[in-house]
């Protein structure tokens, strides 16, 4: 009998690849959209046959979630607001927590077996900047605007663990904590992480702050979500998904070295830390950069590697594949 999975936020970058992976594994997939008019576009960008259906639900409303979860064996909750675009300058903590609550409560009422929640390594930031981080680490940051995103991801994930602890009949919970997500864009609706590479390619990042990220490829992340959903021994565990760390300057060098003339607008110029700190009180984006200046994260994916035999591909390959997809889509000019 074919098992069914609800994937939240079907138009999103991670959701698209998770849906692909699940359909390839033979699951029946239902996904949520806030706007049903986007269903055809989502189906086209996935370029994949399979049993895929759509339903309407919004993290900010109770409407539609019980119907979305009905009849599902599993739920993969990827949808969460980011402090960019329509949510720039807005409260992202409340919708992140409320959305997670709605998804979990609907899953419980529907008798779902397991829920996989996409958290973030922003929920596993060590107290000492640049200190080692594994799944035992929880972010503890003050309630300030520059920390809104890590607080949103941390509090939403903590809420999820608290909720399922009070439900002995289930569902089971697994959380996946990705680092910076790169990989081929599927359409022009770019995630913030992919937007970083586009800014470099288009010359919209004329100077490079002394920042960097551990990179995880979205294709590898989708595999880990599917494994975390199906492996019985994964229940009740967190899994960090992070690969090699790259500074922004290293990303820029990769693009210039491998893409040649197509990366002519990529700037090698550095932005001094003191400039960022001086501008931070007057610029929200600079303010969010300050905690990451000069910090090289040390994230361990040893648990996922041991549990599933999971290994992320080289970060350089993910960055170049991202760039090539943007060129193919006509978004790098």
Strand content: 15-25%
What's the CATH superfamily of the domain at 4-189 and 215-242 and 297-313, by name? NAD(P)-binding Rossmann-like Domain
Low-confidence runs: none
Intertermini distance: 48 Å
Q: Number of DSSP strands?
A: 14
CATH topology-level name of the domain at 4-189 and 215-242 and 297-313: Rossmann fold
Write the element-wise H/E pattern from the N-terminal end onward. Answer: EHEHEHEHEEHEEHEEHEEHEHHEHH
Q: Taking Cα atoms only, what radius of gyration do you get, to the nearest Å? A: 19 Å
Principal-axes shape call = globular
How does the major sheet shape up? 7 strands, parallel
What is the CATH class name of the domain at 4-189 and 215-242 and 297-313? Answer: Alpha Beta
Q: What class would the helix/strand composition place it in?
A: alpha/beta
What is the CATH architecture annotation of the domain at 4-189 and 215-242 and 297-313?
Answer: 3-Layer(aba) Sandwich
Count of helical stretches:
12
Helix content: 25-40%
Record the strand order, biggest sheet.
3-2-1-4-5-7-11
* Mean pLDDT score: 94
């Amino acid at each position: 009998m074919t098992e069914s999975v609800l994937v939240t936020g079907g138009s999103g970058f991670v959701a698209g690849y998770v849906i692909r992976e699940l359909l390839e594994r033979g699951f029946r997939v239902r996904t949520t959209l806030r706007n049903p008019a986007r269903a055809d576009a989502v189906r086209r960008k996935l370029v994949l046959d399979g049993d895929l259906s759509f339903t309407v639900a919004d993290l900010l409303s109770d409407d539609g979630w019980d119907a979305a979860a009905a009849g599902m064996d599993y739920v993969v909750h990827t949808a969460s607001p980011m402090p960019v675009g329509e949510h720039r300058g807005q409260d992202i903590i409340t919708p992140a927590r409320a959305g997670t609550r709605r998804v979990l409560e609907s899953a419980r009422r529907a008798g779902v077996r397991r829920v996989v929640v996409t958290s973030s390594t922003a929920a596993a930031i060590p107290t000492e900047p640049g200190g080692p981080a594994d799944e035992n680490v929880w972010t503890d940051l003050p309630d300030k605007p520059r920390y809104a995103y890590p607080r949103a991801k941390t509090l939403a994930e903590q809420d999820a663990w608290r909720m399922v602890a009070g439900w002995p009949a289930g569902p089971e919970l697994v959380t996946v904590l990705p680092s910076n997500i790169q990989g081929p864009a599927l359409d022009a609706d770019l995630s913030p992480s992919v937007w970083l590479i586009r800014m470099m390619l288009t010359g919209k990042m004329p100077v490079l702050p002394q920042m960097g990220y551990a990179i995880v490829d979205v294709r590898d992340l989708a595999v880990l979500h599917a494994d975390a959903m199906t492996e019985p021994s994964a229940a009740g565990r967190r899994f960090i998904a992070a690969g090699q760390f790259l500074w922004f300057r290293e990303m820029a060098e990769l693009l210039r070295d491998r893409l040649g003339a197509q990366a002519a607008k990529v700037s090698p110029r550095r932005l001094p830390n003191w400039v960022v700190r001086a501008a931070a009180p007057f610029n929200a984006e600079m303010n969010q950069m300050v905690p990451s200046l000069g910090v090289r994260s040390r994230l361990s994916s040893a648990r996922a590697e041991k549990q599933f035999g999971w290994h992320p591909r080289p970060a350089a390959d993910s960055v170049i594949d991202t760039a090539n997809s943007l060129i193919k889509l006509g978004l790098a000019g």
